[in-house]
Design goal:
rod-shaped, coiled coil, single chain, mainly alpha, two-stranded antiparallel sheet, ATPase
């Protein structure tokens, strides 16, 4: 999972560098970016994200599988107990003992099934909560990165326009001084 996080972060940082270091379009505050390169990086990010969703889906499928196995085991134990009870029905003491044993087995199987269900729910909740936190962190980092990039671009535009205005003012002064 760390490898994937590193790759996503590296791709986002690469995208940020691409925006910051791309050639600027004069007087517009915009940059020229290779569309194919940006789309390729975004596609890579999109391709990494589903792994987290696949992991959560696997957890849910594994939970379902465990629950099904517990139910099969419960059914098997129950069927076995019923067969045993039928075989010993003639002897009342054996029947009573079998019923007691069957109840113990059923109670044990139910406890195990419940423990497995609760454990898989907790694990699923933990994984989904972790995924939600990671997505939120990545969103915050991406928004912060984009805000910083926009601030840099805005400062550059302001500097460029201020410089251009200063040159125009100097030209006006020169023209006015030439009239005299």
């Amino acid at each position: 999972m760390e490898k994937m996080e590193v790759n996503i972060i590296e791709l986002l940082e690469y995208l940020q560098d691409l925006v910051e270091n791309s050639p600027k379009v004069p007087m517009s505050g915009k940059v020229m970016i290779d569309k194919r390169e940006v789309v390729d990086v975004i596609d890579q990010i999109i391709n990494y994200m589903p792994d987290q969703f696949k992991k959560a889906e696997w957890v849910m499928n594994e939970r379902e599988r465990i629950l099904n196995e517990a139910k099969k085991e419960y059914d098997s134990v129950r069927k076995e107990t019923m067969t045993m009870m039928r075989q010993n029905i003639e002897n009342h003491d054996i029947v009573r003992e079998a019923k007691g044993r069957a109840q113990e087995i059923i109670a044990s199987a139910q406890r195990e099934a419940k423990a497995i269900r609760l454990g898989s729910r907790d694990y699923s909740d933990e994984i989904l909560t972790q995924l939600d936190q990671e997505l939120e962190e990545h969103k915050i980092k991406l928004i912060k990165s984009l805000q910083e990039s926009f601030e840099v671009v805005a400062k550059e535009i302001d500097t460029n326009l201020t410089g251009t205005c200063d040159v125009i003012k100097e030209n006006i002064k020169e023209l006015r001084s030439m009239k005299k």
